Amino acid sequence: MSEALYPAFGVLLVDDEAPWLRSLRMTLEGPGAISNITALTDSRLVMGALDRGDIGLVLLDLTMPYLSGQELLARIAEEHPEVTVVVLSGLNQIETAVSCMRLGAFDYLVKTDEEDRILESVRRAIRMQELQLENKEMRRRFLNDRLECPEAFAPIVTSNKAMRSIFQYIEAVAKSTQPILVTGESGVGKELIARAIHTLSRGDGPLVPVNVAGLEDNVFTDTLFGHKKGAFTGADESRSGMVEQAAEGTLFLDEIGDLSLPCQVKLLRLLQEGEYYPLGSDQPKQLRARIVVATHHDLSKKKDAGGFRKDLYFRLRAHHVHIPPLRERKDDIPLLLDHFLKESAEVFGKKVPSYPKELLTLLGNYSFPGNLRELRSMVYDAMSVHSSRMLSMNSFRQAMEVQGEVPAEQAAAAGEQNVFYSCPEIPTLSAAVEQLVAEAMRRSDNNQSMASRMLGISQPALSKRLKLQRDGKAE
Ligand SMILES: Nc1ncnc2c1ncn2[C@@H]1O[C@H](COP(=O)(O)OP(=O)(O)OP(=O)(O)O)[C@@H](O)[C@H]1O
């Protein structure tokens, strides 16, 4: 298995002192895990190397024979403004630093600075360069309006415009080394999106999915980082964790919004430092997997409410893909219906049936709280009992009623869209709210997430209201 170079663009080290170049290279390759490096001791060769076009970052010495660092910096800013330059000088002089920054340097470091400080700056410069390249790439793709790799999205059935823009965005960021956050309600297809990102990523390792919801601290560490033999009672053999298994591939952390706060700290450290320690080991291992995380929560709200660390949130959402719910892309329903009919017909060994055209109206009027997963299971249910030529709409209607939605055509037929139709007196506002909440809890079998969806409020808001009602304080 060949290892992908990091970063995707070249990092050029320029210094006339060969021993310093060697030691810098070792720091970058070792603790920095930066592998795409070229080094030059002759300043006259720099512009030619940049003209070849694969260098994105230059670490530049100032005092050199032939061309000084400052002269080179000015020429790079003029001829290759897309290249990021960090100056690494032997001189700790404010005026020189200011003049280099004015000429367009991203940072000014002194060679005697601590290794960590140099690495941190180089990492920031790489990130900055990656963002610039991604922006450029995104502009190019949006202008082009075509997908470079449509086969990566083949399992995702859609003809929706918003979904197509999402695919273009994914193509633009898939090769970045930064994490990608995928959000969207339950059942919208987040896992399929994570798989597409993996297919388009740079590495050729596997996709390793882990559901991290509610994992205890120790289980999380052991699952992700593995352990050394003897690390705890029962650890008879060393075991590699999922981070290692996903090397050169993708680690897909699902349900990230339900990750406990102690585990959030560990994940943050992994992302910040790019390394981790298996349980019982003092030998660090490098993170070599691409990280994709997904959640059905509104992570921003969770962060504001203190349930999710701010610093981790900002790290994770370096790239953010939000998948719209099915009710916002109803134009996909006919395609999806055909797709799930074909899929289920194969599973049940039946012929693909035709269906009444009213079925599309029925589905189009439904809100699909369970999104595509719900549509899929409706179709499978219908197909499991199907025996004639035409598919029956009965099981679809029943499923909608279970979710608390009276199919629109039925309600219209009864002329009873108004829920107070048969009430001689209407209830007070607070009594109506109380009854609504009680009814949602009854229909959802006391499942607060489902009940809150029916009521169109967040689960914490419902929980607060239930508590107020219990305490007799609801207005
Ligand atoms: N666009 C699509 N085309 C075909 N099938 C889809 C599509 N989107 C989702 N599905 C199917 O719907 C089901 C739910 O998708 P998936 O598991 O990816 O959702 P999810 O958003 O990850 O849900 P959760 O938040 O509950 O983990 C799967 O069976 C998946 O194959």
Automatic annotation (TrEMBL):
Segments forming a coiled coil: 119-148
Record-annotated Sigma-54 factor interaction domain positions: 156-384
Sorted UniProt keywords: ATP-binding, Coiled coil, Nucleotide-binding, Phosphoprotein, Transcription, Transcription regulation
InterPro entries for the chain: AAA+_ATPase, AAA_lid_NorR, CheY-like_superfamily, HTH_Fis, P-loop_NTPase, Sig_transdc_resp-reg_receiver, Sigma_54_int, Sigma_54_int_dom_ATP-bd_1
SUPFAM superfamilies cross-referenced by the UniProt entry: CheY-like, P-loop containing nucleoside triphosphate hydrolases
Positions of region (Disordered): 453-475
Pfam family, one: HTH_8
UniProt keyword annotation of Protein transport present: no
Record-linked Gene3D superfamilies: 1.10.8.60, 3.40.50.2300, P-loop containing nucleotide triphosphate hydrolases (3.40.50.300)
GO biological process: phosphorelay signal transduction system; regulation of DNA-templated transcription
Keyword Transcription regulation: yes
PTM-bearing positions, type 4-aspartylphosphate: D61
Residue ranges occupied by any Response regulatory domain in the UniProt entry: 10-126
A molecular function (GO) term: sequence-specific DNA binding
UniProt xrefs under PANTHER family: RESPONSE REGULATOR HSFA, TRANSCRIPTIONAL REGULATORY PROTEIN
Protein name (database record): Sigma-54 dependent transcriptional regulator
